[in-house]
Amino acid sequence: TSTRLPTTTRLPPQQGYPPQQGYPPQQGYPPQQGYPPQQGYPPQQGYPPQQGYPPAAGVPQAYPPAGGVPLTGYPPLGAGVIGHAPVPGYFEGYYIGFITHDTKKDAEVLRKAMKGIGTDESAIIKVLANRCWAERDQIKKDFSAMYGKDLIKEIKSETSGNFEKTLVALLTEPSLYDAEILYEGMKGAGTNENALMEILITRNNAQLFKINQSFQRLSSKSLKDWVKKETSGDFKDLMEYLLEPRDESNIVDNALVIKDAEDLYQAGEGKIGTNEKVFTRILGKRSFVHLNLVAQEYERRHKKHSLEKAIDSEFSGNLRTALIGIVIYARSCFEYFAKILNKSMAGAGTNDDKLIRTIVTQMHLIEGIARSYNTIYGKTLTHAINTDCSGDYKKLLLDIVRV
């Protein structure tokens, strides 16, 4: 006798999070899930009200360890196994946080640190490295109201180098910061493909909607138009997929998982040559929950290679980097960002822009990222920063990481 199996499976809700509330629907994007509104933080002008999030320290324990630990022991998907729900980071909008400090007092501390001769860098670090975005934004507003000065301009006049860059990043509205990175990476000669793929892979639909809005403040052309102009070939196709709303549901069609795993094999290792369009379509459009299961099914069916290794052997250049990045991110956002941080500090010299970008934008996940970094590389993230950075810049990053 045979047992009829479900064709779709709903993944269980994440543990440790309150029931999700509605996020205002946005044109061209499916409704985004949010969290209960935070207290004491008014909506930013020109943006829909932001949703608050619980503190990031309580990473659910039900998820598999980050850091590239092989996922073993899974029976065939045909038996109804659905795998794990995604780790935190997949379905969140920009992390806002809660106002729990006296922001007016913080503004006073910053004013005192920059007033007169010299600058008290330690005081600046103590405040800005230890406040969430809701607090940093309110500090900016309080500073302007109390002293009639723009805090970012004051920071720029009193600091320099990577220390200044990191402080300005901390004080820039998150979607505008992402938009600025993308714009600066595409204008002028050459394109910063690494920044482009890192942002487009890891930002969800609500975040991408806001990035597109912010990008329009910087350029008369849309982000999509810029990407079309600055990229080419199959890499362009993948980037265009990533600019479109990705499926963010937690419904998994087991039959489609099996089909996608086989289609990827037949488009790559199972034939002479490579059908790149199959890879860009599946990895660019499917939900991360779905893709994680596809990767597990691929490895179960084809013992020689994981999907990651198959991509590594079939592709090259930026397209290979982006496709492997998607597979890793689907498995664990902690692992993905840990590997990005390692790339920023590996070898001779440091890619400070990549290091700053990752640490500032992922502050709320830094505990899990640092844990994954330690697991993969056998050393702490703080040790790596201590080795590669110096001065007040190093002190600021270490105060943000502080694990």
Molecular structure report:
By secondary structure, the chain is mostly helical. The chain has a domain at 251-331: Orthogonal Bundle (Annexin V, domain 1), CATH 1.10.220. The chain has 20 helices and four strands. The strands form two sheets. The protein has a two-stranded antiparallel ribbon. It is elongated and about 70 Å long.
In short:
The protein has 403 residues and is mainly α. 55% of the residues lie in helices and 2% in strands.
End-to-end separation: 55 Å
- Quote the average pLDDT: 83
Count of helical segments? Answer: 20
Shape: elongated
CATH C-level name of the domain at 251-331: Mainly Alpha
The CATH architecture name of the domain at 251-331 reads Orthogonal Bundle
Lateral strand order in the biggest sheet: 1-4
Care to count the β-strands?
4
User: Which percent range describes the beta-strand content?
Assistant: under 5%
